[in-house]
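ingest -> validate -> predict -> emit
validate: passed (alphabet ok, no gaps, 97 aa)
predict: started
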Amino acid sequence: MSFLDKSRASRNGGWMRKRFALLLSLVALAFGAAGASPGGDAVFFAGAAYAKSCGAGWTHAGLSWGHKCLRRGQFCKSDADGEYHRHGFHCHTGRLQ
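emit:
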């Protein structure tokens, strides 16, 4: 193999590596976009499971720190009073009203 053949092979190898890297990034992008699509069945069923987990007399609430079942008299985070307001509760004293 002469010097010219080696340089041509390295040039083609670089081109092939770039092409392979592009292909991998496109595949990763395609799978990432498919997994992040809104309205998937997994999201729907997870929300439905949370909605069914609260018993009678309890209110299901999707709060910033997680899904909770709320009831009057429970301990609450007074600094998050606005979040409780969305679900019909007040938290001014440390207990739900």
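The longest helix spans residues 3-35.
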